[in-house]
Amino acid sequence: MDNAIYYKRTIVKELVPSAALGESRSVRICLPPGYNESLSYPVIYCQDGEDFFNFGRIATTMNHLIFDEDVQPAIIVGVDVDKSVRTSEYAPEGDRFPSYCRFFAEELLPFIEERYPVRTTPDERILAGDSLGGTVSLHLALDYPSLFCQVISLSGAFLQQTQSRIAAETDLSWLKLRMLIGTEETSVTTERGTFDFLEANRNAKKLLEARSCPVVYEEKEGKHLWGFWQKESPGMLKAFL
User: Fold this and answer.
1) All residues at 6 or more sequence positions from 53 whose CB lies less than 8 Å from its CB, including other chains
2) Which of 35, 78, 118, 129 could be a cystine partner for 137, CB 3.0 to 4.6 Å?
3) Is the dihedral of CA 69, 147, 56, 229 positive or negative?
4) What share of the chain is helix, strand, coil (3-state, %, to 5)?
5) Closest listed residue to residue 14, CA positions, set 105, 110, 97
6) What are the φ and ψ backbone dihedral angles of 16, each rounded to 5 degrees?
7) What is the pLDDT of residues 197-226, one digit of tens each?
8) Prediction pTM value
């Protein structure tokens, strides 16, 4: 098969107005090969949108899955973030966190669903995030269970506040969560300090399983880097699609 088909993509950039954030947010929408407005598609919402396309190579990954593995085509929505305020938007204790979650659930979804033929049931929406992007994705599902039930977490920053949030739930049998963590992620330096992400993910897994979440949890040799996540993301996407 001609390799060029894997690298062809149609990406539309949009500005989503947001009262919650007090500004517009740029998103990039990747339309699948053979895109047809009269069909409907599952949708993958990615935090750190620019990184998912540039470092995670999600568009190329999806093309490989569609052409080589007979995975159903999906629309990918990458939500961009200003790195200078990323922690305050993605971390549960961040001062912009409530506004960002409100924007995501109450403004972004209707904006996309009015303009693109995405499916609108929770089991046809996938949230994906790396590090703190995994954190905010899980919190979105916990806070808006009528909207989201599928989460991909690549080395999620499941620190104390997230563990407490999971512990506040009683039944998570509805939540389909796939977690990846690297065995070398025992000392990850972040804006908020240095943390043992491996231990945090192990603790989160125990809390989730105690609440009947059918979590799929993988520990693999790897560091807190896109090189690790990019290799593992095809399997996670395939499992949901």
Assistant:
1) 11, 28, 30, 59, 78
2) 129
3) negative
4) 40, 25, 35
5) 110
6) -100, 115
7) 999 999 999 999 999 999 999 999 999 999
8) 0.95
